[in-house]
Amino acid sequence: MGNSSAHSPQGPAARQTAMAELVLAEGSATAAELAERFGVSLMTIHRDLDELERQGIVRKFRGGVTAQPSGVFESNVQYRLKTMRPQKAALAAHAMRHIEPGMAVLLDDSTTVLEMARRLRLGEITPLTVVTNFLEAINLLAGQRGIHLMALGGDYDPLHASFLGVSCVEAVEQLRVDVGFLSTSGVHGGYAYHQEQHIVSVKRAMLDAAARTVLLVDHTKLSRVALHRVAPLSHFDLLLVDDGASPEALRDLDEHEVRHEVCATDPKERASL
Question: Is the torsion defined by CA of 98, 146, 133, 167 positive or negative?
Answer without folding.
Answer: negative
